[in-house]
Predict the structure.
Amino acid sequence: MAIKASFQINDTGPEWRIYFSGNWTVTLLDDVDSLVRDVVIDPGRPLIIDLTQLEAIDTAGAWVIYRFNRRAGEDGHTVTYEGMGEEHRTLLDVVAEYEEYVNPIPPSRSPVYRLIDGIGRTVVESWYDFVHSIGFFGAVLLVFRRAVFEPKRFRGVSLVHHIEYAGFNALPIIMLISFLVGAVLAFMGADILRDYGLEVFTQSLITHSFLREFGAMLTAIIVAGRSGSAFTAQIGSMKANEEIDALRSLGLDPMEILVLPRVLALVLSVPLLTFVAMISGIVGGGLVAWMILQISPSMFIAQMLASTDMNFFYVGIIKSPFMAALIGVIACYQGMRVEGTSESIGTHTTASVVQSIFAVITADAAFALFFLKLGV
Amino acid sequence: MDRVADRGEPIISVRGLCNAFGSQIVHDNLDLDVYAGEIIGIVGGSGTGKSVLLKSIIGLIKPIAGEVRMYGLDPHELDPEKAMELDCRWGVLFQDGALFTSLNVAENIQVPLREHAVLSDLLMDELAALKIRMVGLPEISATKLPGELSGGMRKRAGLARAIALDPDILFLDEPTAGLDPIGAAAFDTLIKQLQQSLGLTVFLVTHDLDTLHSVCDRIAVLADQRVLAVGTLEDMLEFDHPWVREYFHGPRSRAAGIGV
């Protein structure tokens, strides 16, 4: 193990002498820097910096020694070096050459300032995001309108690919989660309803909640996390890699090639996924009802058909394309906002998922109010 | 530290190096010596494995055969602690700087300092500012993120990070690629300057004939999966091999003032 950097002061002689010894290299400096900073230089005697015991030096060590020398000089002392080797001289000259420029990096602001600054930035940023997502939504609609009149602009291959990727491949996870939520809902519901002797209504609890709310909501949230994030990352890394600029320079519209197929794929496949989610949830709840309440499947279905208004299903399914459009637009918008770095992709992917889930839940609340007023 | 090592002993010695990706052989029985204090330029056509050679020397790629010795030690055979100590003795500048995008320039330079040394924040800021000036960046770039810098500035910042620990050996992977001629010439001067003031050994992978002409002490030509020739620029001009002749006597080398 190499000897660490250290120094001794000898102020008993006719001159004031400081010995630097050991290895003055960056990994062995440790706290010697602050000790050198704190050395009180005794005035009135010649000051000698003795380097004879110095074993090795690099720019970091040379900087600390040079800074000491400069401080002594500023205090009006005459500094002489002793035992300065060729290597020492070169490095001291190097740091001296650049020293006039070396000002410590300005200290960062106080935590309170940064907190307030951060809040302000977030508010402005969120407002900007909100306004621009609406603008982006409009742009997607314009591209869609153009494609309606020129159907070749629909990019069939890309559309089918994204339907498979975001729709078909999402089936297992959506079925599983809906099934489990349905089962848990039936368990908890039956338990509470039994206290009132109303366990026969477990069936209504499950079918009503899944048809009206859970089917659409679960699907939208899973799709936002699963496909929305993927869309943002895909478009974002293309943006970072200048592929979007390349598309534009080739006379192609990224909105038409990248964004429209993704948004349309979600709008087409999410209602189907929602339907599957409704069925899976009801099957999960029905199985639990059969197991703990001994309501047989045939009876469950008979009860369901008797007590369920078809409007419940329509209320649930009509929401899903709107939610899909929200997710798709937000995901693609965030992807387009990525700037150059890998960190930016991460930030915008997070923003994409958070914002689309928020948008989906807000939209659901709006729909609930709307249907309440309509009386369905 | 033996910054001034014996001229006679190579500090990097590559023997019988073989590298292959699948069935594609990149290096076959490659030998190369690098001596302390020299600037060696590695040239070769695209795909001849210049960067692969660099990565095998610094231990990022494990060769399928052969050995690499630095200061007589094989980085692949050392225990992790010793290997890390060895890592601190060289700095690497990757092709596009490879700066950490989430950190600003000063923080990038401080990454190795924080990891391998115990220094006060004040000294660390001073050292980062010193290195930033040494590579010729304006001081204001200290607090900029890599995304806000131009390509040339990113390379300089990468170089500042590479010399943060005052290494003995500097590996540069195409340092002047993508720079304008003035920027490239300034970078060449910078490399030469740093090499002289810090006593570095420089291992330079390049395509740039001007760099070879103005900076390198020796040149090694990679072709046919091995080092075809090593020597000074004059040696290369006299070397009789179709690729070498075309490289050093082509129109671009005449433009660079070589071989006229």
